[in-house]
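hey all, quick one before standup. I had two proteins in the batch that finished overnight and I want to keep them in one place so we stop losing track of which output belongs to which input. First protein below, input sequence then C-alpha cells straight from the run.
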Amino acid sequence: MKQMPRLLAPGRRTPLARVTLLTLVQGLGAAAAAFATRALFEALHAGAPDLPLFPMVVLGLSGLVVATSRIAARVQSERLAQSYVLDLRAALFEHAAGMAACDVAARRSGYMSLRFVGDMTAFRNWAGRGVPRLVAGGILIPATLAVLGLLSPALLLAVLPPLGIGLVLILAGGLRLAPLHRRLRARRGRIAAEMAERMTLAPDLDRLGRRNKELHRLHRQSGRMIETALARLRLAETLTAIPEMMAGLTAVLILLIGAREGLGTGTIAAALSALGLLLAPMRDLATVWNLHAGWRAAQEKCAAALARRQRPPYGTRGLPKGPVSLRIEALELPGHPKFSCTLAAGEAVRIALGERAETALFNILLGRDPKPAGQIQLSGIPLDELSRGALRRNLCRIGPDVPMLQGSLRRALIFGTGISIDDAVLRDRIRHLRLDEVLCPDGDLDRRITEGGRTLSLSERTAVSLVRASLCHPRILLIGQDFAAARPEVTNAVQRWIDGTTTTVIWGELLEVPITTATHSTSLQANS
C-alpha cells in the first residue's frame, strides 16, 4: 500500500514559508495604510493648508506593497500546488503500474482518468488557494484586529461580536459542504466515466438504435448532478456573502461607538479602512471551506485507489545463457484448476487451453499478473525469482494485443525494446521479415499511429509485435489464439523467423501453422 504524498513534504515547506512571509508583508502594508489614513484625515480635520508628505507617501506605497506581495504569494502558492499535484500523479501512476493487469482491467477507464483530471483540480485548488488563504486569514485577521485595538480599544470591542458571529456561521455552514462535495463528485464521476466509455462506441450505439436512450440517460444523470451542484454552489456563495452581511452592521457600530466615545474623524476613517481590509481574509476563509471539502472528497478516493493490492515485487535473478526450458506444475487457470506443461529448451508446444486461460497464463509468464511461487520454472529458476529485466528481455508475445502509445510507426516498432536503431537498419529488418507490404509499403516510418494501435489492422499490429521480437531476440515466445486471424504473409513471416532460432515457443490451440523443423516439433503436454 502506497501512502498519500504529504502536502508539507520537505521540498514544499519553503514555498509555504514564503507565502507566510509575504502574507505578513501584506498585513504590515494594511496596518501602515490604516495609520496613514488616520494621519491624513486628522490633518484635514485640523484645516492644515498642506497635507503631510510622509503619510501620503506611506498610503501610496502601501497599496503597491500589498499588491506586489499578493502576486508573489500567489506565484509561490501555485508552485506549491503544482509540486503537490505532480507527486500525486506520480504516486497514482506508480501504484497502477504495480497492480496486476487483471485488476487494472477491472477498473473503469473513465474513473481512472478522472483521478488525473478532476481530482487533481481539487488537490491543486486546496494546495494553491485553500492553504494560502487559510494562512492569510490566520495572519491578517488578528493583525487587523490588533490595528483596531491600537486605534481604539472601544472600536475593537465593537467589531468583535459581529466578527465572531460571522466566523461561527462560516464554520457551521462549512461543515455541510463536505457531504455535498462527495455526492457531487460521485455523480460527476459517474457521468465522466460513462461518457468516456461511450464516446468510442457512439457510432455503434447509434447503429443499434440507442442514441435516444443514451441521451435520455445522460439528461437524467446530468439533472441530478446539476441539482447537487446548485445546492453546493448556493451554500458556498452564502458563506462567501456572510462577511459582506456583517460589514454593514460593523461599519454602523464603528460610527456609533466612535461618535459616542468622541473619537476623531481620522481614527474613525482609519477604522473603516481597516474594516475594508478585514473583508478580504474573511471572504477567503469562507472559500477555504469549499476548497477543503472538495479536497477531502478527492483525497478519500485517491487514498482508496492507493490502498488497492499490488503485484508481488520482482525477483533479482537472471536466466543462464542459451535456450530456456519451461516447466509448469498444477497452475490454477480459469477452467483449468491444475494445468501442467513441460517444454524442453528450444521446443515448441501447442497448449490446449481456452482463450481466458491462455490470456491468464501469458499474463503470468510476462509478469503482468501475480506469479505463483515455485509453480513455474524457467531453466530451473522459479518465475517469481526472476528480475523485471530478465522477463522483459527473454519473454515476448506475438499477436495483435501489443502495447502501443500514440506516435510514429517508428516509435511503435521499437517501443519497449530499449534499442536505438537507425531508420535504414529498421527498414532493412522489415524487408528481411518480408513485412514491408504490410507495415510500410512506401517506407514511411513517420506514419502516425494512435494509442493502442486503433488505426492499425489486426495483421499490422501482429506484424509490429514480430518486428519487436526480432529486435529483442527473446528466448521464450508466446503466440496466442488471436494470431491465427492474421494475414498469411504475417503468419508465414513469423514461421520463417522462428525456424531460424532456438526459441522456446508456446502456441495457442487454435493455430493451424505447421511446424516442420526438428528444433521446433509440436507436442501436446498440457494436462488440466
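OK second protein, same deal, sequence then C-alpha cells:
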Amino acid sequence: MKNTDLFNLFELSPVPIWIFDVSTYKFLDVNKAAIEQYGYSKDEFLSMTIHQIRPPEDIERIEGIIKENVETGIFYTNTFRHILKNGEIINVEIASNLINFEGKEARVVLAIDISEILHAQEALKMSEERFKALVRDGSDLITVIDRDFNYKYVSPASKRVFGVEPDFFIGKNAFAYIHPDDLALVEKEAIQIWEYKHIQLSPYRYRDLNGNWLWIETRATNLYHEPAIQGIVCTSKDITERIKNDRIVQENIERYNIVSKATSDIIWDCNFVNDTIAWNKAINGVLKYKNKEHTTYKWWLEQIHEEDKERVLAKLERCIASGSTKWEDEYRFRCGDGSYKYIFDRGFVLLDEKGKAYRMIGAMQDITARKEEEAWSEVLESVVVNATDAILITNAAEQPVIIYVNDALVEMSGYSREELIGQFPDILHNKHSDQRALNKLKQAIKDQKPCAVELVNYTKQGQSYHVSVTLNPIFEGDGKLARWVSIRRDVSEYWRHMDEIEEQNRKLNEISWMQSHVARAPLARILSLVELLAHSKDEQERLELMKYLKSSADELDQIITTIANQT
C-alpha cells in the first residue's frame, strides 16, 4: 500500500488484515497483527494461499463463497476456522470486501479471533443445559416461593418425590403440607430468611400424594433482589431413608451401650483397615486396664500369653483367609495388674463386597472361675473315681435312680456299672436288710436332708456285707435339689472283729463263773484238808486225808485245764 493513511490503517490495525487475489487465492499483503496472530512471517504469508491457513475439510466451502462474492462483489461477513503456524485451530469472524489492488481483483479481509467468545458461549450453553438437567432430573426438589411462602415455581422432581405434577403446588402455601408436630419449628426458622440470605431448616415431615409422611431437608436462599427470580429459592431433598437409617444406627448404638452396661463381657470392635480396636468399659472393670478404650490390634496380641499366642493367631488368620464370618477361641490374657485371666473370645467377621474382612465385632468372657472349677472338678472326679470308698450318685426324683457309680462300688457289689445305672438303690438290699435304717434313709430323702446309717447290703451273688452309708443332697444355685451323693464304706471287718470280741467276752464270762463257782469248791476242800493235816497226829487219819487232798487237787487241775482251753 502506497497511500500513507491507508497504510497506517492497514499496517497498524490491532486486528489481523490481509489482501488476497480472488483468482489465485494467494496472499498479496498482510499486516503486523496477522503476522503476530498467525505466527508466519510476511514472506511466508506472501508465498501461501488462503487455503493453507484453513483445515482441508473447509476449503471446498471457502472456494464456493469466494466465487459467489466475486460475481456479486458484495461485502460479506462470515465465521471460519483458521490454522495457526503452531497447528492450533482458532475460530475467526471474517469481514471482507472486493477491492482493486495494484491492478488485480482482490479482497481485503479483517479476521477477528472469536475463539474465546465461542468457548464462553459453549460453556454458558453447557451450564444452562446442566442446570436444566439438574432441575428436571436431579434428585433435589427446587422451588421458588413468594413473601407469603406460596409456591411460584416447582421443579419436575415433585412428581418423583411427592407423586404430583409441579402445577399442583403453584399458588399453594408451603406450610400447608407440613406435619402439625413440625410446623411451629419450621415457621420459626423460615422467617429468619429475611435476616439471613441463606438458612438451613431442621428436618421436617411433608405429606405426599398418598398421605404418607416423608422426611424433608430444605436449604433456602433469599433471591428477592434478583430480577429474574424475585423469590426465595428452596432446595429440598427426601431424607426419609437417611432418617430411618440414622434411627437404626441410634438404636443400635443405644442397644450396644445397654448391652455394654448390662453384661460383664468385654465388648470389642476391631477395624482391620486402620488396625484399631475399640473396647467397652469392661476393659477397666474386668481386665484392670485404665484409659484403654482404644488400642491397636498389635496391643491385643501382645497381651496374649506366650504359650497361647501362636495358636490363637494361626486360628484367627485361618478364619479370615477362609472368608468365615465366625471365630472363637480360648486363651490366657494379661490384665493391667500383671495377672492372667482365662478368656473365651468370640467374634463376628464383616466382609466387604470382595469377601475381604474389614471389621470384626465380638465379646471376651472371663472364664477364669470356670477354668478353676473345671480343674477342681477334674481333681474331684479323680478322687471319686479312684476312691477306695464306694460312691453312688442318684438323680433328684421322688424315687431316686442311680446315675453314677465308681469302680469301688462295682467291685464291692459284684454288679457291673451297666447293671447298676438306671436302677433303684434297693438293688443292693433284700428282705433281710434293717428296715429301720431303710426307713431313716427314705425320710431323709423326703426331707432333703443328709443322713448316716449302717446297713447290711448284698452282692449280686447274694453274699451279705456291712456298709456304713452317708447320704448327702446336692443343691443347685437356686436352691433346687439336683442329685444325691451316697458314700458307702464296707465295715464287714469291723463287725467281724466286734463278733470276735463278743465271743471272747462270752468265754471270759464263763471263765469268770468257773473261777468263782466251779474252781472254788475243790480249792476250799484242799485248804480244809491242809488245815486238818496240820493238826492230825494219827498216821492212818493222815493217809486218809492225803488221799482226799490228791483227789481235790486233780479236780482243780482239770478245771484249770478247761479254762486254759477256752481262752
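Flagging for whoever picks this up: The chain has five domains: 4-118, 138-244, 267-371, 387-490, 502-566. The mean pLDDT is 85.
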